[in-house]
Model the fold of this input.
Amino acid sequence: MNNRVIYCTISLMKNTTPTPPRPDALFSKMSHRFARQLTTTLPSIVKHLPEPPFFIQKKIGESILQSLLAEPVEMGDFDCLEDRWLHIHINDADLNFFLSFKDEHLILGEDIAQADVIFSGNVKEFVLLASRKEDPDTLFFQRRLTIEGDTELGLEIKNTIDGIDFEQWPTWLNRIIQNISRFISDDESKLQAMTSSQPH
Done:
């Protein structure tokens, strides 16, 4: 086999062998697909899932909260929840969380009869809040998130949430949150464009 044939063979192999996708591009595609499934199907799926025992939820949930919110806890930003309860209700997934603060730790409760303040909203509003695509003031002003009960305590908690540095969270978690929120924002933009283009 002469050099010309070898050169043509190598060139042909180069042109026909597919280039493997870059890891970051592959991760972005996967997380975008996950974001679409999460925002469209998760709320209905969650409603039909068996609920794990509360002691498991408590152990895992408190560990995650203490890790992600270590800085504001250390700064005393959650002291306002000492011996008081925040009820977080995710409407479309029918999920309820009860949060308090004791001995320098955030704690989870089960079916608190009377919470001091209630935050309510859909999955996408909480995702937009965590991704900083929307600020808390806008979400509460537009009543996409609502506060019921002790309004003064609710505003303190809202300000604490507004001061959380989400960039300190793990990179992989922030990337997933950002991809989910980007999908939500894109869908809302398309919906607004379709609505505005319709004749009145």
Q: What stands out?
A: The helical segments are 3-16, 23-48, 54-68, 70-74, 123-131, 136-141, 151-162, 171-197. Confidence is low (pLDDT under 50) at residues 189-196. The longest strand covers residues 95-102.
